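Model the whole thing, not chain by chain.
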Amino acid sequence: MHTLIVEDETSLATELMHFLAQEHYICDWASNGREASEKIAVNRYDFILLDLGLPDYDGLDLLQETKAMDHDPAIIILTARGALEDRIRGLGLGADDYLPKPFSLLELQARMQAVLRRKFKLKSSSVAFHGFEIDSSTRRVTFGAQEIVLTKKEFDILHYLLLHKNRILTRLQLTEHIWGNLLEDDYDSNYIDVHIKNLRKKLSAHATTDWLETVRGVGYRLTV
Amino acid sequence: MRLQSKLALFSAASKVIILLLLVVGLPLLVNKVALLNADERLLQKEAKMYKIIEEQGIGTFITGETGDAYGSYNLFREEFISLEEISSGKVVNSIENSLRKVDNEIVKYRVLSSTFDLGGKRYLLEIGRSLATIENNSKTLQGYALYFLAAVVLLTVFTDLAFSKILLRPLTLIVKRLQRVEHPSAFTPKDLKTTTTDFLYLNNTINAMMGQIQEAFQKEKEFIGNVSHELLTPVSILQSRLENLLSDPDTPDAMLEKLVDNLRTLHRLKNIIQALLLISRIENEQYLRNENVDIPQLAQEVAEEIKERAEAREVSLQVEMEADYTLEKANQSLLFTMLFNVVNNAIKYNKPEGTILVKGQPSAQGFELLVKDSGVGITQEQLPHIFSRFKRMHAPDGESHGLGLTIVNTIAHFHGIEVDVQSRHGEETTFRFRFPKANLPESVAFSGNWAQNRV
């Protein structure tokens, strides 16, 4: 996946590129609007991560410019300005998603995958692991012919862990993913532990679940 | 009461008072005028009589046949003239009321008496007019006068009404324009077509002040945007960096826990910033209110979203909705956040095996939603401060930013919902949301206290 990161903050762009490179994305970086405009005109990107607050350009203009071209990259808007009309206008102008800063890199990757699946209509939405099969479009988990009934939150946790397989996910990352940002007074990681416990119970009725590890003091990891 | 009604009432009342004064005073006045009139006529007749006597001599009236007196009545005894010779030397010249007996009937007359000397003899001339006739005339006069006055009063009341309506039209226009504006940010200044300088001044002042408010709001909005960008960008960089470190296989295991701790602290900072920004944005009217939100359904959605948390804490969560209610001009996601926060608190500060009841019921005011928990409660000293910023009540882990209930209060206020809390320490807490009456008709809003409705 050829990706352009349009971001004026060098440090953030560096972290994004580092993370996406690990996930096998090929990354380009433009630190201002003019540079981004040139790069978009020359290269055929699959993905553009667009910061709206550029020093020399209104990010929404850049979005319009990109949309006017013959090829159609997927675009996710990233912004720390958080103005509500930006979100509405951005999606109205054809952005595929909108992620307010600060965001978790894992959340960004999950969104990118979802956009790709939607945009390029990936046929298979189901993934098999350790004898189980999880289908993200029908939201079903099966073991052989048997369906395992999970709650919405349990499904979301399992799906997120699988999406980021072999990587430690903190309770905080899982909490933010399944509850969204509700601006709670404080978050309680115990809820995640309860969900994981229930999830293990339901899955272990069919097969062992030692692939769903607890990393002490850190979080959980699904190894494949 | 509207100014126009007040003016109309005042005009009508003042005219009615004038009319009443006239009704009381008119008979006296008219009687007096009628009497003066009658006296005038009597004097004229006296002059006429003297003229006749002078021209034709007293013999015309007093002859040997009639003796020494003359008298004449007209047919209905309304008037009489008498002339007689008197012996006494008293000179009389007066007009007064007196009773006369005519054909065995006593009649009240206004009588002019006058003596004169002629040919060595003294005569008394009396000219009378019946008082009944005089009063009759005056009554007719009074009647006509009253009808006329009443007509004048009615006419002027109506013309006053119409005129004040025309005169006050610019004011009505200003009021209507203000009514349509839900918030100063939605106000568009307009010119007013009127020659009344007071209204022009009023309109211009409102335009100018609204302009100032809008400018202040715009500046605040830009400020919020800048603060948001400047504070959240570093947080974003740090979060990405820490997450990258966390997933780096070269990071030693001993470091992982520290990284997680750092992420927690960063999350706390992020939450405080976002909570403050949310409150500021709501107060800055950046959120739309363009949805109709079914409150019982919202309560169900919140319960559905949160029920696993309640289960995890072994708290039973029950939703009872006794009435339908739709809040118009609302923001669904803000209301969700509001209710979620309150129910989440009810779970967090509950006791094991505790209960939570989310109850919707009709109220005198419209609709109310109660969130009642069997939790640790809030002390009386803390109760007045729970909606204040940064007042941490009973956060067990010390990581609460104390803005949760401030957010709840801000969202409620943004929707015109009243919130109050009742609590018994150690036993229960009840949050009550009182929703505004649905579908307030325009006419009610207009004739009522429109300004108060919109504060």
